[in-house]
Amino acid sequence: MFTRNKSRVAALTAVLVVIGSGVAVATQVGGHAAGSGGSAGSARAGAASTTSGPGAASAAAGSGATNAATTSAGGRHTSSAGDASSISAAGTAPQQVSYLGHSFTVPAGWSVVDLSKSPQTCVRFDVHALYLGTPSSEQKCGAQGSAAVEGAILVSPTHASAAASTTSATSATSSEDDPVEQRISATLPNAKIVASYGSDRASVVGILSAAGVPAPAVVRQATSSEVAAQVKSNLASTATAAATPTPGTPAALTQDFTGLGFDTCSAPTTDQMSAWRASPFGAVGFYFGGENRQCAQPNLTASWVSTEAAVGWHMMPLYIGSQVGTDGVANAAAQGKAEADDAVTQASAIGIGPGALLYYDMEENQYTAIDNSTVQTFLNAWTLELHAQGYESAVYGMETGAVGALNAAWGTITEPDVLDVDNANGLENDDPGADPSNHWQNHRVHQYIANINETYGGVTIQVDWDYFRTDPCGPTRTFYTVVQPQYMLACHTAVPTTSP
Fold first, then answer.
1. Is residue 351 within 8 Å of residue 392, measured between CB atoms?
2. Which of 397, 401, 389, 436 has the alpha carbon at shortest distance from 418?
3. Is the same domain home to 162 and 281?
4. Looking at the domain assignment, is residue 248 inside a domain?
């Protein structure tokens, strides 16, 4: 998780993801490129070539690795196992890149990363980068970072393309825009494109249009009943459907854990999770959805969730969508509900069903009175809709942001079931000071250490530390005029779904 100061927030820009078939095609290379850290595949300064076929592009770049592409380069080569590393970086001119039979023109300053040469590079969407290849399960990512999502392009070949020659695609068969995830999906004859655009939709549509993608049709927001049907369908198609928790049943995804946990931007591999059984942690946090999710998730599948739950890990599914205070939340009630519906749809797709506790990561702080009112309305709608879909609600934030706003609204809105406090004070407790009236006693989580490298079982991961104090149910209390957290209900009491 991260804390983003308003003064540091840049406008959200594009995230492009291209997944398709074929092999690399190199376009023009020019300018200066310096090697760093023994990185393979350095583009030769002053070279200019257009090649195709397995290995041809990387040969032109002087590397010999397959599935490489080259660009008009006027910058540097870097290589890093953690954050987005670049194979080349542009100078001042736009870069034209041809790969898998498609051509894209990306702005100057974007890095170009060959994942076949840098498999541990984290595919992040908070940096301007063009990633070539398939994100590795061994990618090394830190915690959710300190920047807003920016333009990034991931181009990955299909399995069939490895032995196939590159073919040209001139038109898309479909293109649609999901305004909740702020994502455009398009299908080309030999490629799939997913573009996350933030506040820069016009620029993204322009890039896609130049690549031959038709104008996207806006997806209609599903009704609550349609979402419920989709959740049921998703769970039926996952291997974990039979093991998903039900309301009131203590399970890996519900309120039933006291102890330490960690969260990170990209879910670790099952081998890494096995190694970390030797750690002091008993819970793992991972980002499963939302327009501001920064990292690719090659490991996060229904199988992963089922496997890790079976060996005893408790889970903290994090959704990071619109950020009140920076993202221009115009209709807080509608957006809060829509993002809850999106969250349950995304969660159910990886086998997380009704009864699970889903966390909204609301990062912003230094709220104004207007921000407080907006976030209260937004999170009220988020929690109401999660409850209506049979899920439980948690909210992560700061005392000067969402946490403070929720405390101030007690008795006037539908409150989340768990409060998750962002306060890196190094104190291993549930941060009672953030909940002065003790509304969420025994239902608080505290992120108390941020962005630190930890090694257990020979595996190093950059994580945040979290202390959990959550119980599956609590004493019955007097209700206010609206629905209070579900933990206040006696065990096995029916879950209310609407406020009076």
1. no
2. 397
3. no
4. yes
Residues 212 and 237 reside in one and the same domain: no
154 & 171 share domain: yes
pLDDT tens-digit profile, the chain (500 residues): 654 433 333 333 333 444 333 333 333 322 222 222 332 322 222 222 222 222 233 222 223 233 333 333 322 222 233 333 334 554 678 888 887 888 888 888 777 888 888 888 888 877 777 787 778 888 788 776 546 666 677 777 765 444 444 444 445 678 889 888 888 887 777 777 777 777 778 777 877 788 778 899 999 889 999 999 999 999 988 854 445 444 333 357 777 789 999 999 899 999 999 999 999 999 999 999 998 888 888 999 999 998 998 888 999 999 999 999 887 788 999 999 999 999 999 999 999 988 889 999 998 889 999 999 999 999 999 999 999 999 999 999 999 999 999 999 999 999 999 999 999 999 999 999 999 999 998 899 999 999 999 999 999 999 999 999 987 654 433 333 344 455 444 443 443 333 32
Asked whether residue 421 is domain-assigned, the answer is yes
Give the whole-angstrom CA distance, residue 415 versus residue 394: 9
Of 166, 194, 218, the last residue of a domain is: 218
SS3 percent helix, strand, coil of the chain, rounded to 5, is 20, 25, 55
Among 218, 239, 255, give the residue marking a domain's end: 218
Same domain, 20 and 103: yes
Residues 448 and 472 grouped into a single domain: yes
- 25: its two tokens: 């095609």
Global pTM? 0.77
Pairing relation of β-strands 281-289 and 314-319? parallel
Q: What is the domain extent for residue 348? A: 224-488
In a domain? residue 497: no
Residue 155 identity (one-letter amino acid): V
Q: How far apart are CA 34 and CA 110, in angstroms?
A: 16
Residue 255 CA to residue 395 CA, distance in Å, equals: 13
Domain check: are 286 and 420 in the same one?
Answer: yes
The residues, ordered by sequence, that sit 6+ positions from 368 with a Cβ below 8 Å of its Cβ are none
**Total count of domains within the chain:** 2
Instruction: Give dist(CA 349, CA 292) in Å, integer.
Output: 19
Looking at 188-241, list the stretches that DSSP marks H as alpha helix, in order from N- to C-terminal side: 201-210, 224-236
| Residue with tokens 């590079």, as numbered in its chain | 121
CB-count burial class (<10 Å; 0-12, 13-18, 19+) for 171? exposed
Instruction: Find, among 260, 256, 11, 7, the residue nearest to 126 by Cα.
Output: 11
Count CB neighbours of 141 within 10 A.
27
Partners of 113 in beta bridges: 131
